Amino acid sequence: MFNKLVTQTHSLSKASAIKKNKLKSRKTTRAAVVSAITAFPLVWCSQVLSAELSGQIVDKQGNAIANAKVSLKGLDKSQLTDAKGYFIFNDISAGTFELHTSAKNFSHNSLIVKVENQNISNLSVSLLPSVIEVIDVKGSVLHASAIESALPVNVISGDELKLKQASTLGETLKNEVGVHSSYYGPVASSPIIRGLDGPRVLITQNGLDAGDASRLGADHAVAAETSTAQQVEVLRGPATLFYGSGAIGGVVNVVDNRVPTSNETIADWMLQYNDVSNEQQAAVNLQAGFDNWAFHGDAFWRESKDYKLAGEAELDDHDDHEAHDDEHEEEHSERLANSASKSNGFTLGSSYLFDQGFVGFSYGNMTREYGIPGHTHGEHEEEHDEHEAHEEHEEEHEEEHGVYAKMNQDRLQMLSELKFENTFISKLATKLAYTDYSHEEIDDGEVGTRFDNETFEARADIYHKAMNDWQGAWTLHYKQSDFSAQGAEAFTPPSLTQNIAAAWLEEKHVGQVLIQLGARIEHVMIDIDGYEFEHGHEDDHHEHEEEHLTLSDQSFTPLSASVGLVWDYQSGYNIGASAAISQRAPSAGELFAFGPHIGANTYEVGAMFEVEQEGEELHVELSDHEPNVETSFNLDLTWRKFSGDFGFVLSAFYNQIDDYYYQQDTGFVFHDEHGHGEEEHVDEEHTEESSGLPVMQYVQSDAQLYGFEAEVAYQISDEFKVTVLGDYIRAKLTDVQDGENDNLPRIPPLRFAGLLNYQGEQFDGELSLSHYFEQDDIAKLETTTEAYTMFDAHLNYYIDGIGDDLVLYIKGQNLLNENARVHSSFLKNVAPLPARSFSVGIRGSF
Are the CB atoms for 536 and 543 separated by under 8 Å? Predict the structure, then answer.
């Protein structure tokens, strides 16, 4: 007997009890599935060439469950139950398979079935109700929900994704347990997973690298759009080994239907307006087909102005500042200069479908133009809402004289699946993508720097039939990234990075225990073709001289392995444990950066260099130390209750990282007022008064990260559910001398939140209260961030009779009008969170 679970840890906005008549009308858009595995014996029979497998899915009272998804994982077959809960699989070859069942508001069930030589019929599979909503992961070959995985997994989909969808990926995911946002204003925020971000968190689209420059700097927008996505997944643990060493901190996989796998006619659309930035947006998804052909099209458009603030943009420590804000709050509201943005995109795709699988292609284009907050020519001005003409004049001025970015991406993608019967290899899934990305940073109307990234990626996942009850797959993976930066602020040299890798993932049920194993070997080559930096300095006679620093190619061979266990020790409960060793090769930016980064407002120096002070001058030389791979030793323990009206997921983690790359503030600033490089040392007391760029150098040190994540949910009644959640991360260096500051920079603070959900016949809604504690575990030259509380609400009204689902909705955010600052943001001193805001919208499907 065994019982395995699949609980989505972070589904916070949906109530678990939905009336039957509403379930029927919303089944298209409510894609989330709640799951668990109950105890059943093995089913035996004797050998024929093919057999029939059939049965019924019921709840614990014996009532039929319609539209439950039933899958035969060993054969990669799936179907939905009919109105009476029945399913039937024909032409099943002999072998051992996992019959996996999931249905909304119920736990998943896994039943091991051994087919030999007769039909198996009249199976009765009973599902337990679950208070915690569960959504299947599409980006993993293993069981990868928060219950079936040894490590927690976040998935948001359907209505929940539409509700949480924001202009950036980081803001969309920031309320998920264990996930925070880098918050580079509303224009370029990226997700932070358990304190790790940048090159340690891989952003993928349908399992392939997004191919942008968002891992290089916090000011670079992620080239993935959530308004046209089906679901967003945050993966940790063994599943990340299929993605590469850049996923040492996790994978954020944006799943869309740009390469369709069905010719079913589906359409959904959305219109929304937000008052805090006068944001307007629209999105549409279409799918149709005939015979063996399927077609897909989607498009989105979004435009916003500078957003309103609850107080001053610049951090002010004067005691009378808050009182002054309160006195004039009703009269006027300051806006954050240079925070406006425009974006649009579209995708066209088509697939050919056949009995053994599909093959499909897509082309997508995305453009974004956005201001970079914190970079303006002049002081912030207070703007009155009623003066529209003045507002438009300011926006034109900012576009002309401020710093802003233009991003463009073209992406070609090919996906295919080919299924095999009566062979050892059961499925071959191939993925190809070519991405042409550009990002321009524009100052005073002139292009200061242009970043280009041309990426090609190919991946083949080879699934095998069960071997002694082991199920899994191999992957062969190749990725090439041709990156260049040109212009005055080209802070990294052109580089060609190639990754070649192979990985192997397996899992097996042994009694009540699910075992998950994974391993990966990778070879990373960074070719910079003998690039030379011209480093300027002054000699003893104050004459400017150029010094040439010649860089050499680098190569690394990261190795990773993991083992995970999920023990269903009691019906409705389990314990997950994981141990992993993961290595990561440094990125070209971490190694070779050398110059001013205008978007991040820093002067960056890579780990291949040494920075020394000579008198009052900063001197840079090539380092004698060879760069090392990062090596992470991770332990994770999770306890879960997943059935009934009360449930919880409690996790603790410990991560020791040797040779951790991070940006260390050297205490120097860089000035370039006379047309050449001039560096000066600035002590800690005068850093804030300096008008130059702080010099940040990538260095390696041993680090330690540990913390906890918790979610507790209780279904009070059919209509009401309450959820409490929280997370905490402690991150510090472990090889510093006694008395020195050992804190890592920009680590999110302790956070707790409470949510109350209501689900009625025509209405549903949510109230949420989140408290972020003060962060005073700060790095050198970092400042403390004050605590703040965010109060949000939303209300949906469902209209029957128009398509499958028509919803009018309103969202209120920061209803307490807090002037809150995000500690993990590079811009926390100049770009607080938006003021109180309201969004109204309408969305539908047919």
Answer: no
Spell out the alpha helix ranges (H) of 110-259: 158-164, 169-173
Q: Which two tokens stand for residue 33?
A: 């599935």
- Written in H, E and C, the secondary structure of 277-295 is CCEEEEEEEEEEEECCEEE
Domains in the chain (CATH in brackets) are: 39-127 (2.60.40.10), 154-845 (2.40.170.20)
Contacts of 326 (CB under 8 A, 6+ apart): none
Spacing of C-alpha 119 from chain mean position: 44
Q: What confidence tens digit (pLDDT) does each residue in 159-197 have? A: 888 889 888 999 999 999 999 999 988 888 899 999 999
Q: What angle do CA 519, 653, 220 make, to 5 degrees?
A: 75
Q: How far apart are CA 89 and CA 52, in angstroms?
A: 6
Interatomic CA distance for residues 242 and 431, integer angstroms:
12
CB 13 within 8 A of CB 766: yes
Half-sphere exposure of 436 (CA within 13 A, CB side): 5
Q: Where are the beta strands (DSSP E) in 305-356?
A: 333-334, 341-354
Of 1, 22, 17, 16, nearest to 806 (Cα)? Answer: 22
- Residue 381 CA to residue 273 CA, distance in Å, equals 25
Residue 116 to residues 90, 423, 437, 627, Cα–Cα distance (Å):
14, 16, 53, 56
The pLDDT of residue 29 is 33
pTM above 0.90, yes or no: no
Say how many C-beta atoms besides its own lie within 10 A of residue 543's C-beta: 8
Strands (E), 186-245: 191-193, 201-205, 208-209, 231-235
N-term to C-term CA, the chain: 42
The Cα–Cα gap between 799 and 244 comes to 45
Backbone angles phi, psi at 803, to 5 degrees: 70, -165
Residue 47 token pair:
């050998």
Helix H or strand E segment including 225: none
